[in-house]
């Protein structure tokens, strides 16, 4: 099924598919990196570690950061 759909794509369709597969993780990584950079509750070392994680595994790193590190940093604030 999936193969037949891919075979029917035009050159523009392939470009859009590849652009989406490339730019979506890039956008998620950039938004996460901005959040890490401006997070005042993280030390410089932790920021560096989280940035490396997000750069190496963008989607999974962003999910882990927002569900694990972000709530921990918010709890430290109060």
UniProtKB/TrEMBL annotation:
It is a multi-pass membrane protein. It is found in: Cell membrane. GO terms for cellular component: plasma membrane. The chain crosses the membrane at residues 49-68. InterPro entries: CLS_N. Residues 29-68 form the Cardiolipin synthase N-terminal domain. Keywords: Cell membrane, Membrane, Transmembrane, Transmembrane helix. It comes from the Bacteria. This is Cardiolipin synthase N-terminal domain-containing protein.
């Amino acid at each position: 099924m999936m193969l037949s759909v891919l075979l029917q794509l035009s050159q523009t369709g392939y470009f859009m598919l590849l652009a989406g597969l490339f730019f979506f993780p890039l956008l998620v990584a950039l938004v996460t990196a901005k959040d890490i950079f401006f997070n005042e509750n993280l030390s410089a070392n932790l920021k560096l570690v989280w940035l490396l994680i997000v750069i190496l595994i963008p989607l999974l790193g962003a999910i882990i950061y927002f569900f694990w590190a972000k709530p921990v940093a918010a709890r430290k604030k109060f």
